[in-house]
Design a protein that fits this description.
Blueprint: H1 6-17, H2 19-43, H3 48-56, H4 58-72, H5 83-111
């Protein structure tokens, strides 16, 4: 692999997760992002209470993301081979943490329609 292109990345992710699951995850990410933007525009302010609960969900999202990727790749923590593997796992954990925070905040805002004072 001489060049890193989007087509190459899509092919790698489709190989890891399977074509259906990968594109389902892409669609879910787009839907949650659009819902988050809708909530931000609708409420015109951040609720600190909802934000706190979203932040408290971040460690769970990080762990679930790492466990999910390890299950899909049929590997475990014992298979970490070097610094790049640690960096990739930390990146996966960071994306899982941020994703869970956005999901939790959006879900709370859609369930409780009135902004809290």
């Amino acid at each position: 692999m001489e060049q890193l292109t989007f087509e190459t990345m899509f092919a790698v992710f489709e190989e890891i997760f399977g074509r259906g699951l990968f594109w389902l995850m892409v669609v879910a990410a787009v839907v949650v992002t659009l819902a988050y933007l809708y909530v931000l525009i609708r409420d015109r302010e951040l609720s600190m209470r909802k934000f706190l609960w979203a932040q408290l969900s971040m460690p769970f999202g990080a762990v679930l993301a790492v466990v999910f990727v390890q299950a899909m790749t049929h590997s475990g923590l014992r298979d970490i081979g070097g610094p790049i593997d640690v960096i990739v796992l930390l990146g996966i954990a960071a994306m899982g943490a941020v994703g869970s925070a956005i999901l939790v905040y959006t879900a709370q805002s859609l369930v409780r329609k009135t902004p809290e004072q």
